[in-house]
Fold:
Amino acid sequence: MLFSSIIFLFYFLPLFLIAYYLTPAKHRNYALLIGSIVFYAWGGPCFIFVILLTTGIDYLLVKQIEKSVTKKRKKRFLIISLSINLGILFGFKYLHFFVTNLNELLGFAQISAIELPEIILPIGISFFTFESLTYVIDVYRGDYKSLTSFRNYLTYILMFPKLIAGPIIPYNKIGFQIEAERSISSQLRLVGFMRFVFGLSKKVLIANVLGETVSEIYKLDAALIDSSLAWIAAIAYTMQLYFDFSGYSDMAIGLGEMLGFKIPENFNFPYISKSITEFWKRWHISLGNWMRNYLYIPLGGNKAGKYATYFNLWIVFLLSGIWHGAGWNYLIWGCFSWLFLVIERLFLQNISNMLVLFFIHSL
Structure:
């Protein structure tokens, strides 16, 4: 169920909001949890059980992490949780890509290909997997206490405004909001509604229209596409990506405000950036923050020298690329992004790089 669909806009959302606002404040998490389960199960009834199973296991493992008195025992439960979450993500999202490429190699060696049944990707699996990891890691580090009830943890993972397209909200940014009794003023509801409408307009009136233009150009024979048309397609696709993704983020933030939650911003006018470094601080902010706090800094960040910093950045952008999808194009996109960031750090600091940004996003 997409935010821009008729079913969501005219059936699910009005009925859910009526039920949510009529529910006493101390019981609203029940309404939110039930609504989120219905929302997700609508598009993939079988996959809701995958989320429920993994969240149940994570909840128990985190409790064991919190109870453990030795670091070795804590790390053991952390590794189990990471293995389960990343293993499920790999199985659904990357196994087919891995086996397909392995079969190419086996073909050269005249070895029979590995048969793999078709795997349907659960909607939003990358988002809720990363949020599950933040919860486990935050509690392991001792930064925050675990949630006091399984219901609240399910609510954190399944909260439908950010479930299928983000932002990726770390547990430490919203856990206390879930446990609190949220009062929602009429002004906050109105502000949230306007933000939702703004995001919906970006998605439907701009992104979808640009998407149709790009599709029409891509359908043309390559011989009919001159340099002007190619630039139009590249720029239109670049803007389509922004308005589509940021539109969903605006809708998520608006829905969150209507429900009494403060959801972090995910885009901050990235195309006005004066450098690639600034661009990545403005584009998909929640993913960038996740990569910095849970990957880049644990790898050593920029504290181990220039070359180690570039290697750590390469790991981050490589994984950021493949996070967006299982394909060589995503890996190459991640490597290009890293390459231009390194070039900027070496030669182009404080110089406008807008053409490079358009180039990266048109790949």
Summary: The chain has three domains: 6-179, 186-258, 270-361. Residues 186-258 form one domain. The chain has 14 helices and no strands.
